């Protein structure tokens, strides 16, 4: 009796598709071969039909998208294989600081170190603690309240138009200095040095902040005002400049301010006089103010 015709793989041709689908190697049965085994088997069949080496066919099957790991779409990947979210912009700036940021941090570190070294009168137990009363006397000489009270007193006692004009502008300059320093201190809010003792003369709410130094701005403003509107001998002019410089240095020695606070204070006071000189008050552009003081 003739044997039934068999296919190339040795299976009878009359076998139904259901029996093949229920075979252990089929995907529906859940066997270990799966779609990859069927793909490899079909590759072997095509290699026999075309005369290709089976080893090359296996190599191609291993390089197929079914066997290549990670070739599936990202939508099918689990949450563990998802790409990490990008870093925020501020974190990238911290990881890769700019040259300007490095320079500013270095300048701040040098400022704090130098201010602490120069704070030799910050306390009674400091290296120059015995000079502290003299430094506090210099502090009072640069305070805004004595200057305002003295200017108002001289303005009330003055009987010449030229003297009233100079004193009026000096009073305007002192008010401008107080307003600008208080505004900048409230915006920057830099704390005073840690070694500072809060025993200042007549402090306000903004005096707990350090930047800029109000004494330094007032020293630069007053020294420039005096040198431009008073006729003084050369020794007195040198004494005025020396007073402004020593007053600014005393702020660092007492531990009230850092070096950059005093440096910016000198610059701000210098510019404040330029503003006062540009907006100079006179009987021609502000006659109401001078008539008010003349009636008194």
TrEMBL record:
This is Polyisoprenoid diphosphate/phosphate phosphohydrolase PLPP6. Residues 1-40 are annotated as: Disordered. Residues 16-27 have a biased composition (Low complexity). The keyword Isomerase does not apply. The chain crosses the membrane at residues 166-188, 225-250, 262-281. It is a multi-pass membrane protein. Pfam families: PAP2. It comes from Saguinus oedipus (Cotton-top tamarin).
């Amino acid at each position: 009796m003739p044997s039934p015709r068999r296919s190339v793989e040795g299976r009878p041709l009359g076998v139904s598709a259901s029996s093949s689908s229920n075979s252990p190697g089929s995907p529906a049965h859940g066997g270990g071969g799966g779609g990859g085994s069927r793909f490899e088997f079909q590759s072997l069949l095509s290699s026999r039909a075309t005369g290709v080496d089976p080893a090359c066919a296996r190599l191609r099957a291993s390089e197929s998208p079914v066997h290549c790991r990670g070739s599936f779409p990202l939508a099918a990947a689990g949450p563990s294989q998802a790409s990490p979210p990008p870093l925020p912009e501020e974190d990238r700036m911290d990881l890769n600081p700019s040259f300007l940021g490095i320079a500013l941090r270095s300048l701040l570190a040098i400022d704090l170190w130098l201010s602490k070294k120069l704070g030799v009168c910050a306390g009674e137990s400091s290296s120059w603690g015995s000079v502290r009363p003299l430094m506090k006397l210099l502090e009072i000489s640069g305070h805004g309240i004595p200057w305002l009270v003295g200017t108002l007193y001289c303005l009330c006692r003055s009987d010449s138009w030229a003297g009233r004009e100079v004193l009026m502008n000096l009073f305007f300059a002192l008010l401008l200095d107080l307003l600008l320093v208080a505004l900048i201190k409230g915006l920057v809010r830099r704390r005073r040095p840690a070694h500072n003792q809060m025993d200042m003369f007549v402090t306000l709410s903004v005096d707990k902040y350090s930047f800029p130094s109000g004494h330094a701005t007032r020293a630069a403003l007053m020294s420039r005002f005096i040198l431009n509107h008073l006729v003084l001998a050369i020794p007195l002019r040198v004494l005025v400049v020396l007073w402004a410089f020593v007053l600014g240095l005393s702020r660092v020695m007492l531990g009230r301010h850092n070096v950059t606070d005093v440096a910016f204070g000198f610059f701000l006071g210098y510019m404040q006089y330029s503003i006062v000189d540009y907006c100079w008050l006179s009987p021609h552009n502000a006659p109401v103010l001078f008539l008010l003081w003349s009636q008194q």
